[in-house]
Amino acid sequence: MPDPTVTALREAAVHRGFRLVASRKRTPGTGDYGRFGLTDPKGKPVIGIGTDGLTASAEDVEAFLRRGELDTWKQSATAPAAPIKAKPRAATPAPEAAAALPRRSARPAPTPPESKPKPTWSRTERVAKRAPEPPPLGIRPAVEKDAPSIAALLGLRGKARGEAAARIAACRKAGGGVLVGEQKAVLGCLAYVPVPALHRPLSGRITTLFVAERHRREGIG
Hints:
Layout: H1 4-15, E1 19-22, E2 36-39, E3 45-47, E4 49-50, E5 53-54, H2 58-78, H3 95-100, H4 123-129, E6 138-141, H5 147-154, H6 158-162, H7 164-173, E7 177-183, E8 185-195, E9 203-211
Antiparallel strand pairs: 1-2, 2-3, 4-5, 6-7, 7-8, 8-9
Helix pairs in contact: 1-2
């Protein structure tokens, strides 16, 4: 089973543009057991890589990555805003030049089309013409009867479609869960699982987040 600490450090390193190197020793107290290092994408050592093996702890690597993230945020916060270029205005001809320009012959104003009387609606008819407002979005834990809707939402086919209920139960058994968003019908789903670690408090990971295509960009996700 993968070590959650190593998995979290590796994902953080990739996010910052680095590559995590973990010790291959499996026996405590031998060589560089439990030590880590970082390289750039080309394999050039950055931190924790010595001539005798790896030297950085998990806390050292995490502190380095967090410090790099903070520096990037500070640079973006203090960067000057790009100047706004004003659009050039069309040159106004001088009065003498304007007088020399040929005058256009006056054209008769077009005859306005015959205006049609606007329909008059009573207050009851106006209310009836309004489009009904959609029901509010509901978020709740998924239950077994949601399995067919979730399977259709995710586009599961064949055997995977029949295993949807078992997969929902497996998420709960692992300590996580599944949520659904609905407006009369299921529009989206989210699966999560807790990730324990020794070097930080308990955190969580979203393993699935899906919204029906016709309801995307509506703030549901």
